[in-house]
Design brief:
The chain has about 130 residues and is α/β, with parallel strands linked by helices. It is built from four helices and four strands; from the N terminus they run H-E-H-E-H-E-H-E.
Length: about 130
């Protein structure tokens, strides 16, 4: 049990570090309200413990003042998640981190991010 908890903490740390690294590039958009970069993030279902753990880790890192973020729940529906990604892009997301409902939708998300100005996309999954 300790190894599993440690692995989750390490993965959460890696995800947070990857997210911060995505903001390290030049030309990324920032929030007009407080000059923090915006991370658009979503998990496929809040009913999944692992994804909820990662969502909590992302939100805790956001609370430290490195970036602005509110993790969305895809409600186990890829169409809902696609709409959430569209909203993230419209709000000026500097990077997007997702645990997709349907992994085959990755190309659609990447195309949306590229069309919006090459927004970095981070995919994570429990598999």
């Amino acid at each position: 049990m300790k190894n599993r908890l440690y692995s989750r903490k390490v993965l959460a740390g890696v995800l947070a570090a990857s997210t911060l690294a995505a903001f390290g590039g030049s030309g990324l958009s920032v929030s007009a309200s407080d000059d923090l970069p915006i991370l658009g993030a979503a998990i496929y279902s809040a009913g999944d413990n692992f994804n909820t753990y990662l969502a909590t880790a992302i939100e805790k890192t956001s609370a430290d003042g490195y970036f602005e973020c509110s993790v969305q729940d895809g409600q186990n529906d890829q169409a809902t998640m696609n709409d959430q990604v569209d909203a993230m892009i419209a709000k000026g997301a500097s990077a997007i981190a997702l645990s997709l409902v349907d992994v085959s939708a990755a190309s659609t998300i990447i195309q949306k991010a590229e069309a919006a100005g090459n927004i970095p996309v981070i995919f994570f999954n429990k598999r």
